[in-house]
């Protein structure tokens, strides 16, 4: 079994993908203790260290290093400020890379890292990883093309240690985008495929705060036969469940419900299923509803990470 070290691990979306392709995750790390609790409730075999990555002096040996450093500075949903310190946590990933010298690494981040004002950071990361002795490939992948019922595009860097003489190729899509039947691939799953059998009104499992003006500044609704809007970490901004009335546009950044019928956000459990986690995922009682949404929204869709990891040739 190849061994992996996981940094910025969260509740383990990336690691669920690694497990599915046969990796033994020997160490994981995150600052958030509830992320650790959820992770260990579902993937109990890993040594999960809670604390700032900067405090970790030595990392165990591993064949693969995986890391999805935070993205607030690059994200469309977050504060877009390329000067924020949080944007420089890739230096910690680079430190671990140089210490472990794994055969390969995978980094996931938001696609906003390509934007003009962030480009110097993306280029800096690429340069560092290449100087650390890796052949690095990068791509922006659309999660829908890998069987995830959600609009979510993410940037990946995959590096293979140069002495192995191998170049990584990103996996070809396995699913067709909506409306692209001509590709011959099966269509990507819909909201109904993922959460159709779940309770319609799971009291206590969804954020029931009022829909304030900001929430109604865009269309948060998708129907059963569509894919979900992006699952985010902030529970208040979670998309609507399809049993809610549709939204109609009133004007720029202004929408309203077409009827007074009851409306609700997706629950954290539905959000997890739409990310591609197992439907029976365990959420320990050590964290409340908002934290549950947060770890789920922060996660990489496990099927997407699995697709990227399993495309690494057998160098283990
Ligand atoms: C994009 S999320 C990672 C998601 C995770 N890979 C998954 O698939 O579930 C980034 C994570 O970095 C963590 N983080 C932020 N600053 C950190 C630091 N200084 N040290 C360790 N973890 C940190 C956050 O708590 C968050 O869980």
TrEMBL record:
<keyword id="KW-0489">Methyltransferase</keyword>
<dbReference type="GO" id="GO:0003886">
    <property type="term" value="F:DNA (cytosine-5-)-methyltransferase activity"/>
</dbReference>
<dbReference type="InterPro" id="IPR018117">
    <property type="entry name" value="C5_DNA_meth_AS"/>
</dbReference>
<dbReference type="InterPro" id="IPR050390">
    <property type="entry name" value="C5-Methyltransferase"/>
</dbReference>
<dbReference type="InterPro" id="IPR001525">
    <property type="entry name" value="C5_MeTfrase"/>
</dbReference>
<keyword id="KW-0949">S-adenosyl-L-methionine</keyword>
<protein>
    <recommendedName>
        <fullName>Cytosine-specific methyltransferase</fullName>
        <ecNumber>2.1.1.37</ecNumber>
    </recommendedName>
</protein>
<dbReference type="InterPro" id="IPR031303">
    <property type="entry name" value="C5_meth_CS"/>
</dbReference>
<comment type="similarity">
    <text>Belongs to the class I-like SAM-binding methyltransferase superfamily. C5-methyltransferase family.</text>
</comment>
<keyword id="KW-0680">Restriction system</keyword>
<dbReference type="Pfam" id="PF00145">
    <property type="entry name" value="DNA_methylase"/>
</dbReference>
<feature type="active site">
    <location>
        <position position="71"/>
    </location>
</feature>
<dbReference type="GO" id="GO:0032259">
    <property type="term" value="P:methylation"/>
</dbReference>
<dbReference type="InterPro" id="IPR029063">
    <property type="entry name" value="SAM-dependent_MTases_sf"/>
</dbReference>
<keyword id="KW-0808">Transferase</keyword>
